[in-house]
Amino acid sequence: MDLLDPRVDFVFKRIFGSENNKDVLLAFLNSIFIEAGEPPLTEIILMNPYTDKDDPLDKQSIFDVYAKTAEGKLIDIEMQLFNKYDIEKRTLFYWSKRYASQLSEGDKYLELKKCVTINILNYSFLKNDQYHNVFHLREDRTGISLNDDIEVHFLELPKLDERIVPSEGGLINWLLFLKGANTSQWEVLRMNEPSLEKAMDTLQYLSQDSDARRLYDARQKYLHDEASMMDSAMQAGMKAGMKAGMEEGKKEGMKEGIKAGKEAGLQEGMKTGIREVAENMLSLNLDLATISKATGLTEQEIADLKK
Fold first, then answer.
1. What is the pTM of this model?
2. Which of 72, 78, 65, 135 is nearest to 99 (CA)?
3. In the prediction, which pLDDT does 43 show?
């Protein structure tokens, strides 16, 4: 049996964003936060649980997993199968909307709760070898935190070597499962992280369900088509940009050429004038040292003019 790809956001949400699998989501989140040196969560509330209304072809359907902790901290998890570019700006934009949406008119800023964004990327983004990077708002030199309300995680699956099977529990087991580790490795991953068993069972169930597979195929086609159109638009934009840049370069080159020509002509004209002054002074039988001092020419250059 071919398993569905858990990196497809529709499948990801079925595994981690369903009411029946809140315990799976809690275990996954705790593996992320514990690796980041933060205390584990004790309870999680799904804010947008998966329902049958989540149509894979509906652009309005949101396949993020959006949750809240018992203390009110908001957590948004997004699975990105393809590079949509500008992920850092998109992340900050949606983080800010989530953060600001907490307040109604008349509410106090003090009521704002921390918002955490977790991006799981199926492509490399940051220029380092770490598969898990965490960002906060801190002062550059001293590292002092302004506040703890913003927290952004990037989990980059390509930076994992799926051939290396971990010998202990932790986030890497979950990420290897998401990356599509060979099912022969599942037993080890499950022993390391017992909560993975339910995630694996859910994936196997979905893979056997004809309706789920039909929706999965539709969603996968949609994502591939969207990525292809975006890539084509990017390529077309690059070609148009290069063409426009070359045209502008030609214009600027002509301008620079005319400017350089004027400067060169001016300099040559000044040299000709200086030589004429030196020749006139020679005709008056002035000595070479005096002429050199007056014109800036060397005595050898003046002697050559005399010849």
1. 0.74
2. 72
3. 94
